[in-house]
Amino acid sequence: MILAVYGTLLGVHGAQDALGIRDRLRYLGAARIPGRLVDLGGFPGLVAGPGTVRVEVYEGEDDLLPLLDEFEGSSFVRELVPIPELGVTAWVYRYHGPVDGFPEVEDGDYRRGRSAW
Question: Over pLDDT 70: what percentage of the chain?
Fold first, then answer.
């Protein structure tokens, strides 16, 4: 299983540790995927639109997917996206809720957009 993450599951945040998955993921590299990143308050959401979003790409066991599905919740849908820079196809969680009134994360980079983290 290959996973692309752009928000709270980034390696610098604590979600990997809270879920107990940090040691079960192998970092493959950083890349960009098409879309826009919206700051939903305590977490971002990937939505369709012009631009690119910075992601970290990890490899892990397939049995992590149900845990990640539960963590992401019903407002996110898991879908496959090509990551040409790394030569892989990865699962990513796309937000499908309302985005009106939420600011866009500058440059599609949640690390930069949430510098307080």
Answer: 96
Q: Is 101 helix (H, G, I), strand (E, B) or coil?
A: coil
Q: List alpha helices for 1-117, DSSP H.
A: 15-18, 65-72, 110-113
Sorted by where each begins, the domain ranges of the chain are 2-111
Residue 112: both structure tokens together: 């930069």
87 contact partners, CB below 8 Å, separation of at least 6: none
| Conformational region of residue 53, where left means phi above 0, alpha means psi within -120 to 50, and beta covers everything else | beta
Residue 113 in this model has a pLDDT that exceeds 70: no
Which residues face 32 on adjacent strands?
A: 54
Q: Is 17 helix (H, G, I), strand (E, B) or coil?
A: helix
90: DSSP letter? E
Domain 2-111 CATH superfamily? Gamma-glutamyl cyclotransferase-like (3.10.490.10)
Global pTM value: 0.93
